[in-house]
Amino acid sequence: VHLVESGGGLVQPGGSLRLSCTASGFTFSSYGMNWHRQAPGKERKFVAGISSGGESTVYAETVRGRFTVSRDNAKSTVYLQMNSLKPEDTAVYYCSRGYDYWGRGTQVTVSS
């Protein structure tokens, strides 16, 4: 199982970013996928999840209405569209297959 996140970077408050997580080594369409984040000095926290077929999603209260999780099973990729970004969204963002396999993360910094 291999998960690789991309799309992070520096963005101003109010801006947008789209993260991608490309998976390999397993049948992607059979598994739900999650996004998590970890801010400096804090615990890793759940951000969003999507079912194997993409029909069901769930969000942390802190991002609901601003972030959208989606997936393209043909490309074995899950996305996290982040809008109206705030400085408190600054963190390393990780994708995971359930809670057993994780990518290495991508840094998102929201700052003016």
Q: List segments where confidence is low: pLDDT < 50 over at least 5 consecutive residues.
A: none
Number of extended strands: 11
| Share of residues in helices | under 10%
Structural class: mainly beta
Q: What series of H and E elements makes up the topology?
A: EEEEEEEEEEE
Q: What do the pLDDT scores average to?
A: 97
Fraction of residues in β-strands: over 45%
Biggest sheet layout: 7 strands, mixed
Radius of gyration: 13 Å
Outline: globular
Cα separation of the termini: 37 Å
Count of helical stretches: 0
Give me a quick take on this structure.
With 112 residues, the chain is an all-beta fold. The chain is 0% helix and 51% strand.
Describe the structure.
- This protein has 112 residues and is mainly β.
- It has no helices and eleven strands.
- The chain has strands at 2-6, 9-11, 17-24, 33-38, 45-50, 57-59, 67-72, 77-82, 91-97, 101-102, 106-110.
- The strands form two sheets. Strands 2, 4, 5, 6, 9, 10 and 11 form a seven-stranded mixed beta sheet that branches. A four-stranded antiparallel beta sheet has the order 1-3-8-7, with no helix packed on it.
- β7 and β8 form a beta hairpin.
- The radius of gyration is 13 Å and the shape is globular.
- The termini are far apart.
- The model has no long low-confidence stretch (mean pLDDT 97).
Task: Describe the protein's topology.
Blueprint (H helix, E strand, L loop, with lengths): L1 E5 L2 E3 L5 E8 L8 E6 L6 E6 L6 E3 L7 E6 L4 E6 L8 E7 L3 E2 L3 E5 L2
Parallel strand pairs: 2-11
Antiparallel strand pairs: 1-3, 3-8, 4-5, 4-9, 5-6, 7-8, 9-10, 9-11
